[in-house]
Amino acid sequence: xxxxxxxxxxxxxxxxxxxxxxxxxxxxxxxxxxxxxxxxxxxxxxxxxxxxxxxxxxxxxxxxxxxxxxxxxxxxxxxxxxxxxxxxxxxxxxxxxxxxxxxxxxxxxxxxxxxxxxxxxxxxxxxxxxxxxxxxxxxxxxxxxxxxxxxxxxxxxxxxxxxxxxxxxxx
Length: 171
What we know:
There is one protein chain. By secondary structure, the protein is an alpha/beta fold. Helix content is 46%, strand content 20%. It is built from 5 helices and 5 strands. It has a 5-stranded mixed beta sheet with strand order 3-2-1-4-5. α4 crosses α5. The longest helix has 20 residues, at 82-101.
C-alpha cells in the first residue's frame, strides 16, 4: 500500500554513552529522503541518574523538533559485557519512555533482524550495513559516526515495515 501523506521515520540505536539517530521522510511515490543523522552523547564522568536525565532531556528536545511518526528502536541482543548491557538497558528504557510520553509509535527489532532486512544476511558486518544504507538512501558517502549510520538503517526498516504493514492511517 502506498503512502498518501509524508511520513517521518526515526531510527534509534540506543546506548548510554552514545545514541545514534537517523531521521528520514517517506513521500508518496518517491524514494526515502534523509533529513538528518546525528548522535546524542552523555558524559561518562557523571553519575548514572544524571546521564539518564541528560539523555531524556536531549532526546525529548530532539523529538519535539523532528516530529517523527514512527520510531524503530534496536533491542539489546548481546551479553559479552554485562555492565555495558545493563547500562544500555537503562538508556533504552529512558528512550522508550520518552517516545511513549510523546505518543510516538514504536517498533522494536533485533540487530540480526535489521541486518537481514537491510542486507539480506542476518550476520552482515558493519561495513556491509553501512554500504547498503548509503546505496538505499542514495548518499555520496557512508554516514558517520557508525551509531548514526545504524540509526539510518533502523529508520529504513521502519519505512519498509510501514509500507508492508500499512502501519497507521491514510493507507
